[in-house]
Specification:
seven-stranded mixed sheet; 12 helices; 9 strands; alpha/beta; 301 residues; globular; two-stranded antiparallel ribbon
Amino acid sequence: MGAVQDKLVDGLYGLGWAGVKKLPEPAAVALGRRIADFAWKRRGKSVLRLESNLARVVPDAGPERLRELSKAGMRSYMRYWMESFRLPAMDPKRFGTDVEFKDEHILREALASGRGVVVALPHLANWDLAGAWAIGHIGVPFTTVAERLKPETLYDRFVAYRESLGMEVLPHSGGAAFGTLARRLRSGGLVCLVADRDLSASGVEVDFFGATARMPAGPALLAQQTGAVLLPATLYYGDTPKMYGRIHPEVEVPKAGTRAEKTTAMTQAVADAFAWGIAEHPEDWHMLQRLWLDDLEERTQ
C-alpha cells in the first residue's frame, strides 16, 4: 500500500468516526444498510469469500440461500462499523439495555474467584460493543490485543478509539503482549481476545466445521500459565439496536498430557464453542478472509 493510498484509507476511517457518530441513529442504520447492499451487489472478492466460508458453515445451503446469507452478512458487517463509529458518543447506560448475555453469571462468578479471566470471542456481531458492555455494565476494565494495521495512523486511530471506551490495548507484534496479559491475569484482571483466526506458525490446528483451520494458542496458554478461567463467548444481533451473547462454560486445563497436547485440546474446545455460536447465527460471522488451510493452500498453488 503506497503512501497516498495509506492517507486515503486513514482519511476515510477518520471521516467515518467524525461523521457517523453525529448522525441520528436511524440515519446511521440506513446508511450502513445502503453501503452493505452496494458492496454485496458488486460481488467483489470479500463477498465471494464470505459466501465460500458460509458454505462450510451451512453445507446444505444452495446458491440462492448462500446469496441471502451473504447479503445479511454484509449488512451485519456494516452494522458493526456503524455501531463502532458511534460507540464513543453512546450513553454508557445503554450498554446494560442494548446488550444482553445469556449465562452472564458465569463471567461474574469467574471474576469474583480472583483467578483472572480470559474471554475468547470469534468475529461475531460487535465484539467492541461487548467490550463496552463489560466495562459499562459489569464494571470491569479489561486488556486486549490489536493487530498492527497499515497505515500506522489507522492503527493509532483504532487504539485511541478502543482506549476511549476504557480498554487497555496492546500491540500484537513485538512479543511483549503475552507477558503483560499474564501479569494482568495474575492480578485477577480480565483479558478479552478475538481468537477465531491465526495464520502464524504458532497457531493451533483445529477441526472447524469438518475441515482444518488454525486458531491462536494464546487463550489456552494464558489459562495454563496463570491459572485463569478460560471462557468462550459468542454474540449475535437481534432487532436494532439489541445485541445478544452467550458466556459458555469454562474450558478447563486437562489433567494429563504435555503442554502442547493440553493447548490443542483447549483450543479445540474453544473452536467447538465458536462453531456452535456461528452455526446458530451464520449471518453475523464477519469472516471475509480465508480461514481454512485448504483454502490457503489453493491461493499458493
